[in-house]
C-alpha cells in the first residue's frame, strides 16, 4: 500500500470516528432533552442533569482512544503500555465519576421529597460516606486491574498507614471530627450556633471534611477545624422551640388595689396574641414591695425564634403591658430618691 493510500485510509477512519462521536453525542442530547421535557417531574430533571455530562463525554473518550490506537500499530512497545494503563484508568475512573455524581444528588432528592423516609441531613451524611467507600473501592479495583497484589498493598498500607497517621494526625482528627458531625448532627448547614467556650457565634454555611465555615452576624466568615467541635460546648439556638421573655416592671404604691386587675389584663392579652405560646408556662405576678414601688414580673414564650421576629413580638409584649396598666387605671412607678436630714 502506498503512503498516499495509507494516509487516505487513516483520514477516512479519523473522519468517520469523529462523525460517529458527534452523531452519538447529538442523539444523546436530543434524547435526554425530550425525556426531560416529557414530564415536569423534578426527579427526571435531576437525573438528566446528573448523567448528561458523563454520557455526552463518553463517545469522545471512546473516539480519543480509538484515534490513539491509530498512531502506532506496533504491539508491545512503550506507547501501547502507557495506552493500556490509560484505558484501565478510564475504565475505573469514568464509572466512579458517574456514580459519585448520582450519589451527590441524594440530598437534593430528599430535599424535594422523593425519598420521604430520609431527611436532607441524613441523606447528605449517607452521600458523603458512600463517596468515601466508592473512592476506596475504585482505588483497589484500579490496583488489581494494573496487576498489583492486593494483599501486598494492604500489608504495605498497614505500615504506611501508621506513618501517614502520625504525619497527618491533625488532618485525620479534623476528618473524623467532620464525620462525627455528619453522624451525630449537633447542627446542620443553616443553623445558628454559638459556643461559650470559644466565643463562636453565627450561622453555619458549610460543613466540610476538614473545616466548617461559619458566618458571623457582622457577615465575617470563620473557618473552624472540625476536631475543635469534639472538645467544646455547642449551643444551637435555631433549634429552640420558643424564645422566652422575662421582664420586670414597677407600679406605684397608690395602685396597690389595681395590681390584680393589671395582672389579669396582661395574662388575657397573652392568651389572645397569636405569636405567643401559652401552652408553655407563663405568668404576670406581683413579686415584692420595693423601696418606692410595687415590683412585678412577666414571663411568656414567643413562637418566632429568629432575632428580628423575636424583637418585633417582644415590642408588642411591652406595649401589651402598657395597655393593661392603663386599662386598669394604674401607672408605672418612677424612681424616688429619699433625702434624710440628719438631726
Any descriptors?
single chain, 343 residues, alpha+beta, SH3 type barrels, Alpha-Beta Plaits, 3 domains, 4-stranded antiparallel β-sheet, 56% helix, elongated
Question: Could you explain how this protein is built, in words?
Answer:
The protein is α+β, with helices and mostly antiparallel strands. It folds into 3 domains: 144 residues, no CATH class; 65 residues, Roll (SH3 type barrels), CATH 2.30.30.60; 88 residues, 2-Layer Sandwich (Alpha-Beta Plaits), CATH 3.30.70. 56% of the residues lie in helices and 14% in strands. The chain is built from 9 helices and 8 strands. The strands form 2 sheets. It has a 4-stranded antiparallel sheet with strand order 1-2-3-4, with helices on one face. Helix 3 runs antiparallel to helix 5. The N and C termini lie far apart (135 Å). 13% of the residues are buried.
Short description:
This protein has helices at 3-37, 42-69, 78-104, 106-111, 120-145, 150-167, 169-184, 259-272, 307-327, and strands at 192-195, 200-207, 211-215, 221-225, 243-251, 276-277, 283-289, 294-302.
Radius of gyration: 35 Å
Oligomeric description of these chains:
single chain
The total domain count is: 3
Count the beta strands. 8
Which class of secondary structure composition applies to the elements? alpha+beta
Q: Quick one: biggest sheet?
A: 4 strands, antiparallel
Q: SSE string, helix = H, strand = E?
A: HHHHHHHEEEEEHEEEH
Uncertain residue segments: 338-343
Global geometry: elongated
- Distance N terminus to C terminus? 135 Å
Spatial arrangement of strands, main beta sheet: 1-2-3-4
Q: Percent helix among the residues? A: 55-70%
Helical element count?
A: 9
Binned strand content: 5-15%
Tell me, rounded to a whole number, the average pLDDT: 79
